Every structure is written in C-alpha cells, then in structure tokens.
Amino acid sequence: MSKRPYVYVTRKMPAKMINILESVAEVGMWESEETPVPREILLEEANKADGLFTVLADQIDEELFQAAPNLKVVANLAVGFDNIDVQAATKRGIAVCNTPDILTDTTADLAFSLVLMVGRRLAEAVECVKTGNWTSWSPFFMAGADVHHKTIGIVGMGSIGEAVAKRALGFQMNVIYHNRNRKIETEKALDVSYRSFEDLVVESDYIVCLTPLTDATKGMFSKEVFRKMKNTAYFINASRGTVVVEEDLVEALREGEIAGAGLDVFHQEPIDPNHPLLQFPNVVALPHIGSASVETRGAMIVHCCENIAAVLKGETPVSLVNKEIKC
Ligand SMILES: NC(=O)c1ccc[n+]([C@@H]2O[C@H](COP(=O)([O-])OP(=O)(O)OC[C@H]3O[C@@H](n4cnc5c(N)ncnc54)[C@H](O)[C@@H]3O)[C@@H](O)[C@H]2O)c1
Ligand SMILES: O=C(O)[C@H](O)CO
Q1: Nearest 5°: phi and psi at 236?
Q2: How far is the CA of 178 from the centre of ligand 1 (A)?
Q3: What CA–CA distance (Å, rounded) separates 7 from 4?
Q4: How many whole angstroms from 224 Cα to the centroid of ligand 1?
Q5: Residue 101: beta bridge partners?
Q6: What is the domain partition of the chain in residue ranges?
Q7: Which of 51, 69, 243, 255 has an alpha carbon within 20 to 30 A of 92's alpha carbon?
Q8: Cβ neighbours, 10 Å, residue 326
Q9: If you ran DSSP here, which 8-state letter would residue 286 be given?
Q10: Dihedral of the CA atoms 49, 54, 58, 59 (nearest 10)?
C-alpha cells in the first residue's frame, strides 16, 4: 500500500476547517495561532512534506525548496504571494496556490474604512472621548475632510480595487484609477476613468494603493510622489508595506506635504510601536487586517485545503498561481 501524503500547516487552524486535508493526507500543524513557526522547524517539516499550507510570515524560498524533495504544492493563506519564490517553485514543478476573490469584499470594506477614518479623523475622535479630552461642542472641534464628492485615485484596479471603486461611487466620489493596463470594460461597467500614475497623484484627494508587491511596485510611493500630492490629500495603503518608502512617508507627514495616511501594511510586521510613523495623530495604523473577518478567514482556510487536496489527487487546483505547472 502506498504511503499517505504528508501536509504541514504552518499555523494552528481550527480542526473542523481542515478536515478536507485529513481526508487525503496525514496532517502536521504548528502549535501556535499567533507565533510564526521557527525557520528550522519549517525546514524540517518541509523535508517530509508533499504539501505546505503557509501564511504570509513564512519565507518560501530556494533554500526551503532544496530541503523539500517531495513537495508538490504550497497553498498560501492570502491572495498576495510575494513571500513565495514562485519562479523557484515553477522550476521544480511545485504548484503555488492563493486565495483570490474570496477576500475581495472584506478587504475592500477595510480599505474604504481607512478612507473614512483618515478623512473624518475617526481614530483621533474616539481617542479624544476615551481620554476625557472632549470638553465641549465647538465649531471646528475634530473637523476633518469630506469624503463624499471628493476624488479617489485607486492604484491597482484589480478585484479589490474595483470593489473599492463601487464603495466610493456609493459615496458619490469621483473615481479615477491607474493600473498596469487600462481596463476599458471596467470603465464602462463602473463610472471610473483612467489616469497616468503622475496625473492620478496630482488630482486625487484620497489615494488608495491596491497593487501586488512586485519589482515594479516596490518603492512606488516615494518622496517625489508625496511632493506631487495635494497637501490636503490622504494616502491609504492596503497592499504591501514595501510599495512605500516609509522614511519618505514620514518626511511627507512631518513637512505637511500630505494631510494624513491610513496604513494596514508595513515594511516590518508587526511594526515597532516606537516607529516614527505611529507618532503622527493623522496616521491610522492597522495590524494587517484587510481580510480579517471570521467568515472570510474561514473561507480562505477551506479554500487552501481544497487547493492542496486537488494537487495531491492529481487535479488542477482552482487557484493556481503558476498556471504553467502540470498537476
Ligand atoms: N491588507 C490586506 O490584508 C490585503 C488583503 C488582500 C490583498 N492585499 C493586497 O492587495 C493586492 C491586490 O489584491 P487583488 O485581489 O485586488 O489582486 P488583483 O490581481 O485582482 O489586482 C491587482 C491589480 O494591480 C495591477 N497592477 C499590477 N502591477 C501594477 C503596477 N505596476 N502598476 C499599476 N497596477 C498594477 C494589476 O494589473 C491588477 O489589476 C494583493 O496582491 C495583496 O498584496 C492586501
Ligand atoms: O494578500 C492577502 O490576502 C492579505 O495580505 C492577507 O489576506
């Protein structure tokens, strides 16, 4: 009888959500939901594994692939897969899977919440009430910027970008976008118009970044960009931390070149609480929770299991990143 495949899950996941995996493989799991699996344990487990169920904090690179002679599939609990060396996986015929679409609306809700939070100063206002600094009603107390009828510039008009556009249109915003390629069908379906990156930066009252992290997007938001933004404009990042040069964002905030920032992602996660970005009252910082609703995270976990199970059964998984792989 042939040996059952082995799958290692790099975070503790609810047993009932991974039972699909148990029907096709022996399953090993890291013991903690919060602490990342130590690198040496990940390498040891990868050495035995036919499949890996990973999260963003795991670096799945050449070193790991070299240590994993039987590996056939890596399923990442995210739509982004910048923590995985996809080229190295493809070279070895290893399938890389992600979780697109399932998390689109949940992440768009969060990204649009950041627009409202920075514009209307919601985090500052909540803090003010809780700390007893609400002294009286006064004409400009906690007055922020309007969101309705303003111009929102979406950089990266993919699934989440489009879902943010729909939310913005509900607030009667003027929606402009920049994308790697122009999307005529989207322009027709939604009332949105294309701009060059430079024009979008100059025109927007709120810029929302929703690109993947790639060589082309790394450091895309730098001091030159912040200087061109209106000084009444807000920058929102729900993509990946390194699309922004953080020191340049700090300088732009310090110099008043922009009005504020809403950030769900950072270079270093978790960000150091003493980081200069966190000292500005007009910065709203969240702990990378774009897709973090109970419903969506549950659906993402099940989807990862289905992708792994498909590969182990010799089928093509639904969310295959490296489509050139034969499963
Ligand atoms: N904060 C969070 O928790 C969270 C949650 C989900 C996704 N994300 C991030 O959001 C990204 C987008 O997710 P999605 O599902 O919308 O992906 P998607 O692939 O549907 O959309 C990405 C869009 O960005 C465009 N793009 C790529 N490179 C570009 C460039 N150089 N300039 C302009 N546009 C470019 C693509 O053409 C595409 O339209 C993910 O890759 C991930 O990094 C973050
Ligand atoms: O890329 C993603 O999906 C997020 O960062 C986590 O949901």
Answers
A1: -120, 130
A2: 12
A3: 10
A4: 22
A5: none
A6: 6-102+294-312, 104-285
A7: 243
A8: 7
A9: -
A10: 60
Name the residue with tokens 């970044």.
209
CA 166 to chain centre: 19
pLDDT one digit per residue (tens) for the chain, 327 residues: 578 999 999 999 999 999 999 999 999 999 999 999 999 999 999 999 999 999 999 999 999 999 999 999 999 999 999 999 999 999 999 999 999 999 999 999 999 999 999 999 999 999 999 999 999 999 999 999 999 999 999 999 999 999 999 999 999 999 999 999 999 999 999 999 999 999 999 999 999 999 999 999 999 999 999 999 999 999 999 999 999 999 999 999 999 999 999 999 999 999 999 999 999 999 999 999 999 999 999 999 999 999 999 999 999 999 999 999 988
Ligand lying nearest the CA atom of residue 56 = 2
Q: What is the CATH number of domain 104-285?
A: 3.40.50.720
6-102+294-312 under CATH 3.40.50.2300, yes or no = no
Q: What are phi and psi of 114, to 5 degrees?
A: -65, -35
What is the DSSP-derived secondary structure letter of residue 127? H
Q: Which ligand is nearest the CA of 100, by number?
A: 1
Q: Which two tokens stand for residue 234?
A: 């807000």
